[in-house]
Specification:
Elements lengths: L1 H4 L11 H10 L2 H13 L3 H29 L3 H12 L7 H32 L8 H12 L2 H21 L1 H28 L4 H9 L8 H14 L6 H6 L8 H29 L10 H12 L3 H33 L4 H22 L6 E11 L6 E12 H7 L6 E8 L1 H28 L2 H8 L4 H25 L7
Antiparallel strand pairs: 1-2, 1-3
The structure holds 4-fluoro-L-phenylalanine (PFF) and sodium ion.
Pfam families: SNF (PF00209)
Main location: membrane
Family: Belongs to the sodium:neurotransmitter symporter (SNF) (TC 2.A.22) family.
Length: about 500
């Protein structure tokens, strides 16, 4: 029965297609938008160092494991994990890797599309010259105005979903392959041009130091969880996206080097994006910690003043959109592939899955305007200011609350100050997927491949020639990755704050 499913979605045509597709999946909003802003929010250098350690000790080993599983079974992650648990005799709950991954996919696709919609909207804004000569305040105001308009956000969210669905519906070879061959090289060239520009700005070195000088006193437990979660998000791991792409990889290709390339390129793009954005941030007196708006506020200032800025800016946001688009395809692929294996046509499966993700995305659209006040995991901390020493008196917690009402209830005075912090629908989905579901998926994959697949079984699929590399990888996957992920989880089990 599963024999008919194996390989039914097609195989990548070229030798390099897997690298291109996997890099297309990995390089996306995670690198250009998310990495810079979470680095800003988490204080810079020390966070970057922890992130790099997570990539090396957990991300790359797990990526190799995922691709291995996919290529061995040549089916969607859900069916791949079902077949693999049977073949290895591992406990049935490892099948949950596939199911949890599909669920993560719906959640991630839903908010990813909303942010990609911002990029699409910015293509038109920059092209129209709206940012020419703009300063930091003007750019911040334009961003705020965009967020305040749920209808506009929904339109662009819809456009992005339709674009992504259209490619998925056409399948692995016709949909993805041709486009990516052209687009990915252009992305790299444009990044280089912008990098060159950032070198000429007065804030470049300050940005560089912010990214690469580490001060561990700034590092909280939460930052470490965020760094771990992001290392999975940025490499598209823990939910089956890379497993699905591995299922389309030609059998002859050796896995080790291929995976290293993808990890290296993704990391490089993130670091270069960080250098570009922080150079501009510091040159214009912006706050590195300004959150999700960082890229959308800082870059238009640069494009507004550099020669040819309208052209480069337009192309840049087209490329952000393309990077997001090639990633979004891979986010949806596991669920669509599963539905097709169930007997659905590719088109009907795509429409059904995208309709659900689109609908969930409306919650993220509203998070930035009408629902901004409705938050989950709300912490209220009270500071005693009387003694002159700021002393935390107590914290209260609400699972869900209307923070606007709370703010009216807890009024700051000369004697006490209240700090109210919660997560909107968008923040909650982002938190749940990146910081919990993806690392948990990665942990289970590491344990599964490390402990339940025999060394012979792995070697047969892997065709790795370098014995030493194999031994190191397997050791890291068995001991280091799971222990590191588990430790980070345990440490953060007061999960949100203390
Ligand atoms: N890796 C993508 C990025 O950095 O933007 C996001 C992503 C793609 C996450 C695919 C998860 C995934 F399965
Ligand atoms: Na990425």
């Amino acid at each position: 029965m599963s024999e008919q499913k194996r390989g039914m979605h097609g195989i990548w045509g070229g030798r390099w297609t897997f690298i291109l597709a996997a890099t297309g999946s990995a390089v996306g909003l995670g690198n250009l938008w998310k990495f810079p802003y979470i680095t800003g929010e988490n204080g810079g250098g020390a966070f970057v160092l922890v992130y790099l350690a997570c990539i090396l000790l957990a991300g790359i080993p797990v990526m190799l494991a995922e691709v291995l599983l996919g290529r061995k079974e040549r089916m969607s992650p859900i069916n791949t994990m079902a077949a693999m648990t049977d073949e290895t005799g591992a406990p049935k709950f490892f099948r949950g890797i596939g199911w949890m991954g599909a669920l993560s996919g719906f959640f991630i696709l839903s908010f990813y599309s909303v942010i990609a919609g911002w990029a699409l909207l910015y293509v038109g804004k920059i092209a129209s010259g709206a940012f020419t000569g703009i300063d930091a305040d003007g750019s911040g105001a334009a961003f705020g105005a965009m967020l305040a308009d749920p209808v506009g956000l929904t339109i662009w969210h819809t456009v992005f979903m339709v674009l992504t669905g259209a490619v998925i519906a056409r399948g692995v070879n016709k949909g993805l392959e041709a486009t990516l061959n052209v687009l990915m090289p252009i992305l790299f060239v444009l990044m280089l041009i912008l990098f060159g520009y950032s070198l000429t700005t007065p804030g470049f070195m300050q940005g560089f130091h912010f990214l690469f000088d580490f001060d561990f006193s700034k590092l909280s437990t939460e930052s470490i969880v965020v760094a771990l979660g992001h290392s999975f998000f940025t490499l598209s791991l823990g939910m089956g996206a890379i497993m699905a792409y591995g299922a389309y990889m030609p059998s002859k290709q050796s896995l080790g080097k291929t995976i290293l390339w993808v990890g290296l390129l993704d990391t490089l793009v993130a670091l270069v994006a960080g250098m570009i954005i922080f150079a501009i941030v510091f040159s214009n007196g912006l706050e590195p910690s300004s959150g999700p708006g960082l890229m959308f506020i800082s870059l238009p200032i640069a494009f507004g003043s550099m020669p040819g800025g309208v052209f480069f800016g337009t192309v840049f946001f087209i490329l952000v959109s393309i990077a997001a688009w090639s990633s979004a395809i891979s986010i949806a692929e596991p669920a669509v592939a599963w539905a097709v294996e169930k007997g659905g046509s590719r088109i009907v499966s795509t429409v059904a899955i995208f309709a659900v993700a689109w609908f969930i995305g409306l919650g993220s659209v509203l998070s930035f305007n009408d629902w901004a006040g409705y938050q989950a995991f709300v912490f209220i901390s009270e500071m005693d200011l009387v003694s002159g020493v700021e002393e935390k008196v107590h914290t209260a917690f609400h699972l869900f609350a209307n923070v606007n009402l709370l703010q009216a209830e807890y009024v700051n005075t000369a004697a006490v100050s209240y700090h109210i912090e919660g997560k909107t629908f968008f923040d909650s989905l982002d938190f749940l997927t990146s910081n919990i579901m993806l690392p948990l998926g990665g942990l289970l994959i590491a344990i599964f491949v490390g402990w339940f697949m025999s060394s012979d079984m792995i070697k047969q699929e892997m065709k790795m020639k370098n014995e030493a590399m194999f031994t190191i990888w397997r050791f890291v996957l068995r001991y280091i990755s799971p222990v590191a992920i588990a430790l980070i989880f345990i440490n953060s089990s007061g999960l949100l704050k203390y």
